[in-house]
Amino acid sequence: MENNQEVLLRVDHLCQYFKMGPNAVTKAVDDVSFDIKKGEVFGLVGESGCGKTTTGRSIIKLYDITSGSVYFKGIRIAAGTQSYKDAIKKAQEELKEKSKTASPEEAAKLKAETDAFIAEQRKQIKLARNDQKNCDKAYAAQQVKKVEEKYAPLLSAATGDEKEKLTKEYKDELRKAKNTRLVTQIQMIFQDPIASLDPRMTVREIISEGLVIQGERDKKVIDEKVYEMLELVGLVREHASRYPHEFSGGQRQRIGVARSIIMNPDLIIADEPVSALDVSVQAQVINLLNELREKFGLTLLFIAHDLSVVKYFSDRIGVMYYGKMVELADSDELFLNPMHPYTRSLLSAIPLPDPIYEKQRKRIVYNPLAEHDYSKDPPTFRELKPGHFVQCNEAEYQKYMEQLK
Amino acid sequence: MEEAKLQVKDLRISFHTSNGKVQAVRGVNFDLAKGETLAIVGESGSGKSVTSRAILGILAGNAIVESGEIIYDGKDLLKISEEDFHKIRGDKIAMIFQDPMSSLNPIVRIGKQLTEAMILKGKTRQRESRKAFNEYLKHLNQAMVDAVAKGDSAKAAQITQNCKNFDKFEFKHTELEAAYNTAHEAAVEALEDLEDISFQMEKNAVKDVASIIQDISKRAQASVHEYVVKEKGDRIKSLASALPGQYRKAKRKGDYSQVLPAMYEIRDILKEALAKEAPDYFRMGYYVTFSGKPLPDMPIHELNEYMLDYLNKEFMLGFIADAEKAMEHSAEVAYANMESTIPVLEASLPVFSKEKLDKKECNDTCKKLSAAVKTCIDPLAIVKDSLTYTFASSLKSEIDTYFAAIPKNAKAMRVHQRDQRKHDRLVARGKKPDWEVADAAVTDLELVKHNIAHLIQRLADHYKASLEKRSTRNYEAETVDAIDYLKANASGVVAKVTRRVAKDRAIKLMTEVGIAEPHRRYNQYPFEFSGGMRQRIVIAIALAANPDILICDEPTTALDVTIQSQILELINKLKQQRQLSVIFITHDLGVVANMADRVAVMYAGKIVEYGTAEDVFYHSAHPYTWALLSSMPDLDTNEKLEAIPGTPPNMIYPPKGDAFAPRNKYAMQIDFERQPPMFQISDTHFAATWLLHPDAPKVDPPKAVVDRINRMKLKNQKGGVEDGK
Fold first, then answer.
1. pLDDT of res. B430
2. Helix B475-494 vs helix B317-348: crossing angle, to nearest 10
3. Does A322 touch chain B (CB under 8 A)?
């Protein structure tokens, strides 16, 4: 993409399969790629079961992804191996097929080629496994190095009491640096504010848990931080000692928001944060997220099925259908020129607070069998116009271009 | 307007909690006409779910119904026994709950849960229908004898014989019709599936459809019937029975072109059969039962005419004439009784207006009045006069409330005084207790007395009004209605629900609510379904019993737009087909705009605005409605959303004035002091806000709302809907 903004998160051919039995595989997310730029809100929409939540969870490494990679701030934080394994298998089969007919010399040459290819793939697998496992360690090592570099001159310069104090501070910082995880800079807000808060923990414990895990031991600092967060999300200090059940739905969701922003994240994955809330409370939470976004320059991956909210809130929107991304565009562009038939069907289903309009509204039914003929020419993700991508094959591409004119 | 199917009058419900009495519903009034959707909108905690649960009789154990009536089918649902409620709950009034996980049994397969109620209720329904049929026919018979025979015993015997004949041939009719319907439905369904599958086969994109092919085969064979697939019956049977085998063979080869010709042939036969006209079974039932001759061989429309002639000449015209007289006679008797009851009612008023009521006198008067009112019931009226039916039970319960409240009030006062003393002691010691003394939970005896008087006066007025209207009655139309009522009950008796039928119906319902592969899903457990799928199952269960009234408590809140849209369409379709009345509870105003004929906006246990959907959306008058409208983004919203500040009030200490006042930027001084009455804006539109008082300052709705309404008007003028754009 030719935009100059820094890319914060890159999702590259992400696949997430689940084994449903000896021979059955559910492709929850199948070859999805997108970028999220710094400071933008990326909306992900689709019907339930289309894989949008799974995408979010795969990014934050709640699942081990099957294949593809996720880059965060340029570092590969998650990588899958299935595609390489498939490539090896395919190469081996091809070799078998070809060597049946080929002469001995040719066969030997083919074998050498294939072996080289397989070795390359194996190397990739190793790399992927290493990244998947050790990205956090590498990042922590980097942080430790930074701290060491910062304190080394200071420590050598200081003397007496000051040195003691500085050593203590240094050790503290060092411990924290060792405990840093890159992935903690991605935080998640969950859909159900009731289920996502532990009923046996006080609000203080819930909000500060991340800090404690990161190695913060100073009670005073923790309390200060918690109070700051509470006030930021529109609650008061006194709430810190209460339990989640004492709050209303909107307040609980605010606690969820406070819990995620205390870690100073760069990216927040908001998985249907307002779906379970009343309209009036919904507006409060959306306004809150908007304020936080302006204040901290947060980047958001906003997963929701309420299209009016997504339209209101997002800069760009990706539409998913059964594990595939079918359309991706700026939010105004998407609502103005929906190209993929599924997007059209989705947009035609939005209820609006207008009785006359509603009573005439006709839903467009999307039937993939009737809409597409992919038997000969399978579809790919193509760019129709700058920033507007659609899943289509050549014939459809021509048709869409015609329509766009 | 049509007679209301369900009436809720002055409903007040509280909950006992350890902190005090929570007043959840404070005087709610609405009615629901047949085939109408009423949407109740409000935040959580506004009492909308409590209201709907009261209608279904499933309030929590600590709930107290303080006053009010919920009238359905001539019964007050707040006063009938649990035994009687069993017959209504789930069968006549069904509910779709908000949380699908808690309304499904986790250890029972979905199929069982879907069919359970159908099978259980099937038998009861048959029994009930038979009872209703017999009872009504008996009353009709009696009224006919009284009105027509007038002591002529031969005539009376003939009338009784006629009624018996009607009974006999009516059941023949429903049996014949049921057999036809089974075959016809089978044909329609087989045809639908066939077209679907053959389309997939042409595209060569078939998944495993063995079970559907089995179904098609069975249904195609079941469609052989005298008036559906007749001549080609043998052909279709042989084709259909060979179909599953062919399909298996084709599947092994991966080439479906072998199956298609057979499928096309079955399809053509079915299409041809469905294009045929159906005979009139009511007429045929009589002909077959009494003529003793076989049906003449002629085209169907001629046959229909022929049978009609026979029926009219032999039986129907005379029967209808007698029935009409009977209806008139029965109504006249009821009117005469009303005339004599009105003075009795009015004379009893002083008994209940004394300073202190006398228990014995009250009970005697109650019995006397109940007996008098009972004579005013017209047993032949199809639309039941709910006031008359509920009068006795309402009066009795009010009197009981009065005498039970006297000792209760004394106790509540003692408790209150004790708390007050405690509080005062603490204050005297200079402490600041963090609790307040709750008001004593006393029943207002004056109010109960007033209620009793109102009840009696209302009935008397109602009788006077109906006496005035007696000349406008159309007995001819009512007779037709009465015969339709008998027919409906007869078909209820014949319709048997076996396990097989239930399964078929369940699978059809699952398809209707949009569950793919229903055959496989039928045998799964709830945990194997996603949230949206579970909700669809719950909806299918609610619809399985074919209810009269459907209460939907936020049914689509957890679903995504496409499914939501499908389910709303489904509910709308069923509503039209079955003349279903729907109460739709939600906070999504978009959904309300789609579904509702009328809208009631609730806040803090009261209805604050009430009107048709157009009234509430385009001319909303209450600040709370404005706030709701402006806090919701639509596709054209760019500015900051206006969230409603604060939280709903604590209903243990309900505010003295307008409950919304503290969160309302338009609030005036009077809003904090007195509760606003319902102001009438137009014939259909009411709102409870002081802003509508003639002395109030003129206030415009917030800009966001005005802008949106203007935008909507513009869009609708432009020629309405641009799909998907």
1. 83
2. 100
3. no
- Are the Cβ atoms of B635 and A335 closer than 8 angstroms? yes
| Rounded-to-integer distance, Cα A329 and Cα A383, Å | 10
pLDDT at B724: 39
User: What integer is the mean pLDDT of B73-95?
Assistant: 83
Rg (CA), chain A: 25
The closest CB to that of A357, out of B200, B633, B721, belongs to B721
Is residue B118 a contact partner of residue B506, using CB atoms and an 8 Å limit?
yes
CA atoms of A213 and B717, how far apart (whole Å): 60
With vertex at residue B210, the alpha carbon angle to CA B206 and CA B215, rounded to the nearest 5 degrees, is 115
What is the Cα–Cα distance from B191 to B180, expressed in whole angstroms? 16
Q: How far away is chain A from the Cα of B636, in angstroms, using its nearest Cα?
A: 8
Measured in Å, how far apart are chain A's first and last C-alpha atoms? 22
Torsion angles phi and psi, residue A201, rounded to 5? -110, 145
Angle made by CA atoms B350, B356, B362, in degrees to the nearest 5: 55
- Contact: A308, B635; criterion CB under 8 Å: yes
Q: What does the DSSP assignment read for A16-63?
A: EEEE-SSS-EEEEEEEEEEEEETT-EEEEE--TTSSHHHHHHHHTTSS
Q: Which of B566, B613, B643 lies at the smallest CB-CB distance from A283? A: B643
> What are chain B's domains?
1-107+548-725 (3.40.50.300)
* A103 at B interface, C-beta within 8 A: no
DSSP B374-399: HTT--TT-SS--HHHHHHHHHHHHHH
Work out the number of other CB atoms within 10 angstroms of the CB of residue B347.
Answer: 11
Does A238 reach chain B within 8 Å, measured CB to CB? no
Cβ within 8 Å, pair A349-B562: yes
A336 touches chain B (CB under 8 A): yes
Q: List helix spans (H) across A60-103.
A: 82-101
**Rounded to a whole number, what is the largest CA-CA distance in chain A?**
83
Kindly give the interhelix angle for B499-512 and B110-144, rounded to the nearest 10 degrees.
110
Q: State the smallest CA–CA distance between residue B150 and chain A in angstroms.
A: 56
Q: Cα separation of A301 and A269, whole Å?
A: 5
Q: What is the tens place of the pLDDT at every residue in B392-438?
A: 888 888 888 888 888 888 888 898 888 889 888 888 888 877 777 77
C-alpha angle B599-B604-B606 in degrees, rounded to nearest 5: 50
| Strand, coil or helix: B681 | coil
Question: Which chain B residue's Cα is nearest to A336?
Answer: B725
Between β-strands B686-687 and B606-612, what pairing exists: parallel, antiparallel or unpaired?
antiparallel
Q: What is the dihedral of CA B609, B613, B615, B616, to 10 degrees?
A: 40
Residue A9 β-bridge partners: A36, A72
Retrieve residue B251's tokens.
Answer: 């599947």
Measure Cα distances from A353 to A124, A279, B21, B451, B709 in Å. 53, 12, 36, 40, 9
Count residue pairs from A and B with Cβ separation < 8 A: 171
Decide: A242 and A226 in contact? Cβ < 8 Å: no
Regarding beta strands B679-680 and B686-687, do their DSSP bridges make them parallel or antiparallel, or are they unpaired?
A: antiparallel
Question: Of the candidates B517, B571, B487, B3, which has an alpha carbon nearest to the alpha carbon of residue B215?
Answer: B517
Where residue A1 falls among pLDDT bands split at 50, 70, 90?
very low
Task: Give the closest-approach CA distance of B183 to chain A in angstroms.
Answer: 30
Stated length of chain A: 405
Burial of B154 per CB tally in 10 Å (0-12, 13-18, 19+): exposed
| Residue B165 exposure: Cα atoms within 13 Å on the Cβ side | 18
Q: Tokens standing for B567?
A: 């389910």
Closest chain A residue to the Cα of B618, Cα to Cα: A354
pLDDT score of B1 more than 70: no
Q: Is A236 on the interface with B (CB under 8 A)?
A: no
